[in-house]
TrEMBL record:
Domain OmpR/PhoB-type residue range list: 775-874
Segments forming a coiled coil: none
Superkingdom to which the source organism belongs: Bacteria
Signal peptide: none
Protein name per UniProt: OmpR/PhoB-type domain-containing protein
Protein family (similarity comment): Belongs to the AfsR/DnrI/RedD regulatory family.
The entry's keywords: DNA-binding, Transcription, Transcription regulation
Organism: Paenibacillus sacheonensis
Gene Ontology biological process: phosphorelay signal transduction system; regulation of DNA-templated transcription
Molecular function GO terms recorded: DNA binding
Annotated DNA-binding residue span(s): 775-874
Length: 1018
């Protein structure tokens, strides 16, 4: 749609039927975040909203959507342009971020949305934003951003969405909280008295009450149906006969009535309608180009006067569109009855758009007119421009509709098409076409410029390598990759594509999810890494290093795996794309978990979230958080796993999806750990069927293992053993070890049963069990002092405290960190108000309870009596307080990125604070010291962000510090200064007022004069 028409409120004729109740419902939307106007076509959604918007005194920004807006950048640009019409200068901080796609930050999921929210916050007064025809928007990234925006909308901003469908993102929470209003078909349809008024005011027809009742029953208040009926009856002259024939479903009614209306029109108008119906919008010049006749403006105005479902798109009435029902009807008639005219109208429209510089509109019409040569010409001529504007999806969609012969002499376009097919997993079309392309161009070696031919063949060999990999011909893939490197330029199309910021097709980054022959994979990966050893920054070398490390890890060669990962992560020239970072850190985290370094494994994943810089940030976060949830289950942190399960948006009723295997498998694992066994098995079985069909060996094994554990937990032991035997049968030829060993002791019992049985899988089960024997003894104890005290084994078993004093005694002994606490000191700390004799008795009982609690999870001898007091044996403990001290010392000495990583770990570790949830007086000095250290970490981070010019991020760190030290005047001053530097005057003034209120109430004083002067700089 031409941009100028998208942001004007459509002009409607004066409403002859006054609908105060509907307008009142729309007014109520100004007390909510979102008003959803949802109904099928023809119920007057746009008319009602435009009437309300024109009457409303509050500012209204309007966005009319069409199919081309199903693009993240274009959608939000249209929204910002509409807001800019209502507020001069709006969008200055937003537009640069929109150009980079859905996410361009490693800190925020939606930086563009955050910038948009900040600018909306600064707008004076209330504002309504209307999105019309939202059902045309199907892109998940847009829906996710819209959901993000609505969640955080300022109270003064209200969204109105008109759609034929319900929204694809969850809205029930907003409805429950009163933040969502719904206007549905029931409210939009005419009531019986309104239908009668409509016929009285808009027609010369004088229908009887019985006829009106019959007509109303047939249309059920469908506004467009009533308008069509009125037009039909006026032209037929026989209202009774028309009403008798007026029956059927809405689409049948529409087709019938439109036919009735259409056939009675003058021939000149019928011809005009037929030829221009191919246009999604039109002005007189475009209509004249399409029809080949002058006088189009008069025709458009005449159609408007006849009320023939034509909608003005701007106040000057220069641009129009047909009502969707009329356009659909006319296009069906034209394509069926006059295909030549259909083609000619589209071609003429395409030529006009191309001449005006509207390349995308031109391409759409050339496609509709089957002018494939012109489509390919446009793609080739404008590819770089379109790609730079992020129109990859549009180019791919056009290319997919063009028959193969039209690409024969345009290899770059065909290459883009083939890569598009790979991107949407249409693998089956790639190998044959890639091979034909190779043969065709190898034959041109003597007929082309040598350099051009060489460069082109490099590109073609790369796509042939991709095709060979798709066919799991790993030797062929390696051959073609090496030939591609020998021919292509360093800035080749293929290599540039490999260095993009997007989430890649998983089969090409996580090779072991696709390749079932692990010995063959080892040969392929080592051959390619040897070939690329001199340039580790090759975009496809890094994921191969990660996959080889995963292979060694699966074979339980952990030290070798760690060495490979360290080699590439410490290299100065590896390709640091988001996908590469993701694969490397995922492998490294799993290796650390397998080596018993659970905290480091978790910390790696948390740091990874700060490294991702991608338009597909949300996709990466979903996958990283799923990995964190799986790790949490293995580490016994069920609370974190449950929190992920509640927030991830997945359901056990979802269809299994190849692009979501890691998330859905994590979901099954958490469901099972939470005791929701039937839902876990339901989704797990669907996943297994999908993965079996797709021949994905590794993931089949993983699902079978989780299903086995789930069945065992449900008491269905025989079925559990059957699943595990299948997993062992699949895994043995490839030498899988870690897939079983990572499940820990929970799986050992089942493996032991199989190992002692006559089953064919018994020998391999015993081999896997040897790994368990070496790894799971002796057991260590994990102590969590940050947050609520938690004591657990590596197997995830935790202490259930019998009394609060039992828990406090454990906390006190841990607080002394291996040093002896005298009996008197313990009594004074835990029973200060109790006499010595009774306190001693209670201490004896509490000590007994503590030892029993530790004994129940296999931790005998942890509490020791020494030198008249008691101590905790620390040699078997991994305490997070020790980790805090280590990290804090390291962070002080580290610089730049290393310091940021250490600080991120400290923040993640601190959580709610030292022994949070307990008011232990004896712990208060340590708690205050650690909180002070934590605030110091936040301030160092703020200072680093300030030096980098990232003032919004710096301000956020100060806000966190203030939450822990709310009476610190200097922190307020820091925050105000950051907000001033970020040019956020409103927030700066709010913080100044908060500081003044705090100082007056707490200390009876005013802010320093220097703080007030800061505000003068804005």
């Amino acid at each position: 749609m031409i941009a100028i028409t998208k942001t004007h409120i459509p002009q409607v004729r004066h409403a002859l039927v006054v609908r105060p109740e509907l307008l009142r419902l729309l007014d109520e939307g100004m007390r909510a975040k979102l008003t959803l106007v949802s109904a099928p076509s023809g119920y007057g959604k746009s008319t009602a909203l435009s009437q309300w918007a024109l009457q409303r005194g509050t500012l209204v920004a309007w966005v009319s959507l069409d199919k081309q807006d199903d693009d993240w950048t274009l959608f939000w640009k249209a929204a910002v342009e509409s807001l800019r019409n209502r507020a001069d200068g709006f969008g200055g901080t937003v537009m640069p971020l929109l150009a980079e796609g859905p996410s361009s930050s490693s800190v925020s999921r939606e930086p563009a949305m955050t910038a948009l929210l900040n600018e909306l916050e600064r707008l004076p007064g209330e504002l309504a934003i209307v999105f019309d025809d939202f059902h045309l928007i199907t892109l998940p990234a847009i829906h996710q951003s819209m959901n993000y925006l609505i969640e955080r909308l300022p109270d003064s901003i209200h969204l109105y969405i008109a759609s034929r469908n319900d929204l694809s993102f969850p809205t029930s929470k907003w409805f429950t909280e009163g933040k969502l209003r719904r206007i549905t078909t029931e409210q939009l349809r005419f009531r019986q008295e309104e239908a009668a008024e409509f016929f009285l005011e808009t027609t010369e027809l004088r229908l009887t009450a019985e006829q009106l009742d019959q007509l109303y029953d047939q249309t059920e208040g469908w506004i467009t149906g009533l308008r069509l009926a009125a037009l039909s009856m006026e032209r037929s002259g026989d209202a009774a006969r028309s009403i008798r024939r007026f029956s059927g479903h809405q689409q049948h009614i529409a087709d019938y009535l439109l036919q009735e209306v259409y056939r009675d029109l003058p021939e000149a108008i019928r011809d005009f309608l037929l030829q221009t119906c191919v246009l999604s919008q039109m002005n007189y010049a475009l209509c004249e180009a399409v029809t080949g006749q002058a006088g189009a403006q008069r025709q458009l105005e005449q159609l408007e006067q006849l009320q023939l479902f034509i909608v003005p798109l701007d106040e000057q009435r220069e641009w129009y569109r047909y009502h969707h029902l009329l356009a659909d009807f006319l296009q069906t008639m034209l394509a069926r009855n006059a295909p030549g005219l259909w083609e000619r109208a589209n071609v003429r429209a395409a030529q006009w758009f191309e001449h005006q510089g509207f390349v995308e509109e031109a391409a759409e019409h050339y496609l509709a007119g089957r002018q494939y040569e012109a489509v390919v010409r446009l793609i080739e001529a404008h590819m770089n421009e379109l790609l730079s504007r992020g129109r990859n999806v549009a180019i791919a969609r056009w290319a997919m509709q063009v028959p193969e012969p039209y690409f024969s002499d345009r290899p770059l376009v065909e290459l883009f098409y083939l890569y598009a097919m790979v991107g949407i997993r249409q693998f089956d079309v790639v190998p044959d076409r890639a091979e034909r392309l190779r043969i065709r161009f190898e034959a041109l070696a003597d007929g082309m410029d040598k350099e051009s031919w060489r460069n082109m063949m490099g590109e073609i060999y790369y796509i042939c390598a991709t095709a060979a990999y798709i066919g799991k011909d790993l030797a062929g893939a390696a051959d073609y990759f090496i030939r591609g490197d020998a021919h292509a330029r360093e800035n080749s199309f293929f290599l540039q594509g490999g260095n993009n910021k997007h989430f890649s097709v998983g089969e090409f980054d996580d090779h072991l999810s696709y390749v079932n022959d692990y010995d063959g994979a080892a040969r392929f990966l080592t051959r390619m890494m040897d070939h690329w050893r001199d340039y580790e920054n090759h975009p496809f070398a890094t994921p191969m290093y990660a996959s080889y490390a995963k292979l060694l890890y699966e074979w339980n060669r952990l030290d070798e795996a760690e060495a490979w990962i360290n080699r590439i992560m410490q290299a100065t020239r590896f390709a640091p794309t988001a996908s590469n970072r993701y694969q490397l850190v995922l492998a490294a985290s799993r290796i650390q978990q397998a080596k018993g370094n659970g905290r480091e494994a978790a910390s790696m994943l948390e740091r990874l979230k700060l490294m991702i810089d991608s338009p597909d940030y949300a996709i990466f976060m979903r996958k990283i958080e799923a990995e964190q949830a799986s790790l949490a289950v293995r580490q016994g942190d069920l609370a974190s796993a449950r929190a992920w399960m509640a927030a991830c948006g997945l359901s056990h009723e979802d269809e299994a999806a190849l692009g979501q295997v890691s998330e859905q498998l994590a979901f099954v694992r958490v469901l099972a750990a939470d005791g929701r066994l039937d839902p876990a098995m339901s989704l797990g079985e669907r996943l297994y069927r999908l993965l079996t069909k797709e021949d994905r060996l590794r993931d089949c094994v993983h699902v079978l293992i989780v299903l086995s554990l789930t069945l065992h937990k449900a008491g269905r032991r025989e079925e559990a053993l059957e699943k595990l035997e299948i997993a062992l049968r699949l895994a043995e030829p490839q030498g899988f070890i870690r897939s079983f060993a990572d499940e820990g002791p929970a799986l050992a019992e089942l493996l032991l049963t199989i190992g002692e049985s006559p089953a064919a899988e018994a020998r391999y089960a015993r081999q896997v069990l040897r790994t368990f024997t070496s790894e799971h003894s002796p057991r260590r104890t994990k102590i969590h002092c940050f947050g609520r005290l938690r004591v657990e084994t590596d197997g995830g078993e935790t202490i259930k405290w019998r009394t609060s004093k039992t828990e406090e005694l454990m906390a006190l002994l841990l607080h002394h960190r291996g040093e002896t606490a005298s009996r008197e000191r313990i009594l004074d700390a835990l029973w200060p108000e109790v006499d010595v004799e009774r306190a001693g008795a209670q201490f004896h009982t509490t000590t007994h309870y503590l030892r029993k609690a530790l004994q129940r999870i296999g931790l005998e001898g942890l509490v020791q009596h020494a030198k008249g007091g008691y101590r905790i044996e620390t040699s078997r403990l991994d305490c997070d307080l020790d980790e805090w001290e280590r990290l804090r010392a390291s962070a002080v000495q580290a610089e730049d990125n290393a310091a940021d990583q250490e600080a991120a770990e400290l923040i993640a570790l601190y959580g709610e604070g030292y022994l949070a949830g307990h008011a232990y007086a004896w712990a208060e000095p340590t708690r205050n010291r650690i909180e002070g250290e934590f605030v110091g970490v936040l301030i160092r981070l703020q200072e680093r962000e300030e030096k980098r010019g990232r003032y919004d991020a710096a301000a956020e760190f100060v806000r966190q510090a203030l939450a822990h030290d709310p009476l610190n005047e200097r922190l307020y001053e820091r925050l105000i200064r950051m907000l001033v530097l970020a040019d956020d005057r409103i927030s700066a003034v709010k913080q100044y007022e908060a500081l003044r209120t705090m100082l007056r109430s707490e200390f009876g004083m005013e802010p320093r004069e220097a703080v007030g002067k800061l505000l003068e700089r804005v």
